[in-house]
Amino acid sequence: xxxxxxxxxxxxxxxxxxxxxxxxxxxxxxxxxxxxxxxxxxxxxxxxxxxxxxxxxxxxxxxxxxxxxxxxxxxxxxxxxxxxxxxxxxxxxxxxxxxxxxxxxxxxxxxxxxxxxxxxxxxxxxxxxxxxxxxxxxxxxxxxxxxxxxxxxxxxxxxxxxxxxxxxxxxxxxxxxxxxxxxxxxxxxxxxxxxxxxxxxxxxxxxxxxxxxxxxxxxxxxxxxxxxxxxxxxxxxxxxxxxxxxxxxxxxxxxxxxxxxxxxxxxxxxxxxxxxxxxxxxxxxxxxxxxxxxxxxxxxxxxxxxxxxxxxxxxx
Length: 316
Fold this sequence. Notes:
Blueprint: E1 2-6, H1 11-22, E2 26-28, H2 40-52, E3 67-70, H3 78-83, H4 85-105, E4 110-114, H5 143-163, E5 167-172, E6 174-176, H6 189-202, E7 207-211, E8 217-218, E9 220-222, H7 223-236, E10 243-245, E11 251-252, H8 253-263, E12 269-273, H9 288-294, H10 302-315
Parallel strand pairs: 1-2, 1-3, 3-4, 4-5, 5-10, 6-9, 7-12
Antiparallel strand pairs: 8-11
C-alpha cells in the first residue's frame, strides 16, 4: 500500500512508520521543512509531488494513495496550552482541515485522523464513551487545542456524507514512551516527571516539586500500543463514528509520581505545588468500540511501559 504519514518522524509517528515498513508498505513522510501543512499551497504541492513520483498502477493506469495517517500536530502539556493557546488552535485546525480536504480532493482511499482525549467535556460520565464527546465544553486549560483537533470529527462526518469519503477518527488517551518530548516547557506529565526525578537523583536534590494536588486520575497508553491500534483501524475500520484508544485503566497522579520515584530509585521528599492546576479531574475511556470493531486491546502495563521509557531516557 502507498501510505502517507504526516508527523512520521515524531513520537508516535516513529512507531507507526516502523510497523508499516516492517509489513512491507511504501511509506512517505512529508518533510515539514519542505511542506508546511498549515499552508494550502504547500499541502497541494506535497500531494502533487508524491503522486508524480509514484509508479503507476498498471491494472488501472492510475496513481493513487491508499491511506493517509495524519499524526502531525502541535501539542504539549498544561503549561504549553496555557501559554500558547492561539498558536495551538491555529496550527492544528489549519493542518487538520487542509490535510483532510485535499486527501478527499486527491481521491485518497482512506484517511485516519488522530485526535485527543482532550475532546471530552471537563465533567463527563466515566468511563468516557464516544457518544459523550458533545456533552459540554472541554477542560479550559486545553480547550483551544482540543476544539481545533475536535473539528476533524465534524469534517470527517460531513465529507463522508457529501463525498462518500472514508475518513476515520481515533481518540487516543494520554500517551507516553520512547521519543516523547522531555522538554520541561511543553512535555506531558510522564516525561516531565521522569526528567524531574532523573535530575533530582543526579543532583542529590532533597525534594521534587510536582504540579497540582496529585488527586486527578489519568489513563496512560504506551505509544507502541497506540501504533498497533492505528494500523488495525486502517486495515479493519471504515465507520464515521470516532473510536477511543486506551487501556480502560486509570491511576492517580499521586500514585504515578510514587511509582516513577520508585522505579528511578529516588528516595527524597515529594512536594505538591497546589497553586498549579490539576486539569480535568478524571480521564478514563470506554474502549469497547475499539475491541468490538477492530479487536484492539492494549498489551503493555503501566509499570512495564514506564520501565521501558525510563530505560530509553537514561540511554538516549
